[in-house]
Write a structure and sequence with these properties.
Helices cover about 25% and strands about 40% of the residues. It is α+β, with helices and mostly antiparallel strands and about 80 residues long.
């Protein structure tokens, strides 16, 4: 199950991101990396076709069988 923190949910609404895009990014990323500041966090990246190929970054961590989303945003510096 995917769970959004309060911050992630507020950021999702503010940035106009839908849950499907976040889910696709976590479940089938184009690229993943460990967060350099907090190794318990994973950064997942995915090019979103319906957003002109922009790269969505989702920062998340695992808690048992759940995935907790910390934040999500289109990363202007990410390269496809």
């Amino acid at each position: 199950m995917i769970i959004l923190t309060k911050h992630a949910d507020e950021a999702r609404e503010k940035r106009g991101l839908n849950l499907d895009r976040i889910h696709r990014t976590v479940m089938a990323p184009d690229l993943t990396s460990v967060d350099p500041v907090d190794p318990t966090l994973t950064r997942s990246f995915k090019a979103i076709d319906e957003a002109g190929g922009r790269i969505l970054r989702v920062v998340h961590r695992s808690e048992g069988n759940d995935t907790v989303i910390i934040t999500a945003y289109f990363d202007r510096n990410a390269k496809p």
